[in-house]
Amino acid sequence: MFEKTGIPSEEMIREKFPPIERINKGPVAVVECYKEIPCNPCETACRFSAITIGEDINNIPVLNEDNCTGCAICLSKCPGLAIMVVDGSKSDTTVQVKLPYEFLPLPSAGETVKGLDREGKIIADVKVLQVQNPKSFDRTPVVTIEADRSIMYKIRNIRTEAK
Ligand code: SF4
Ligand code: SF4
């Protein structure tokens, strides 16, 4: 399935997530890089040495979740939009998720948008909490949403209504 479509299985996705105990402590990166490719901006962008690729630039990045502060710099720098940040410390019923978002128009804080899974299917309405637009050519805008915990391993993108 993954080789044909590029869509990871739920098992593959869960392997990339830090343990739920870490997610519930505060924001932490989820580095969804599945293929060996020559790429490393995530590693070089992290000031906390939380991502390691090693000597071979083709290696798959490995996250040390204890070093990660959830700052989302790597997320903004990843050309593959492969990273998100999840924070389960704010509520027992919801999680906050930072997502890379490269479409226009950008949503606005307070807006309700459609939450999409990795196949692009609508799975829920989610609330936009914050939009960070770095206005730098090498940084991707970051949209923070609040989503129900039941879709934490499914939510991967959003869709706004045309304005
Ligand atoms: S979220 Fe921040 S601390 Fe965590 S891996 Fe990315 S750059 Fe490093
Ligand atoms: S920057 Fe993104 S695509 Fe490149 S190695 Fe890191 S996670 Fe993978």
From TrEMBL:
Highest taxon of source: Bacteria
InterPro entries found in the cross-reference section: 4Fe4S_Fe-S-bd (IPR017896), 4Fe4S_Fe_S_CS (IPR017900)
Domain 4Fe-4S ferredoxin-type: from-to ranges: 59-88
SUPFAM superfamilies found in the cross-reference section: 4Fe-4S ferredoxins (SSF54862)
Entry keyword Nucleus: no
Keywords: Iron, Iron-sulfur, Metal-binding
Entry annotated with the keyword Glycoprotein: no
GO MF, any single term: iron-sulfur cluster binding
Signal peptide residue numbers: none
Record protein name field: 4Fe-4S binding protein
Lineage: Bacteria, Bacillati, Bacillota, Tissierellia, Sedimentibacter
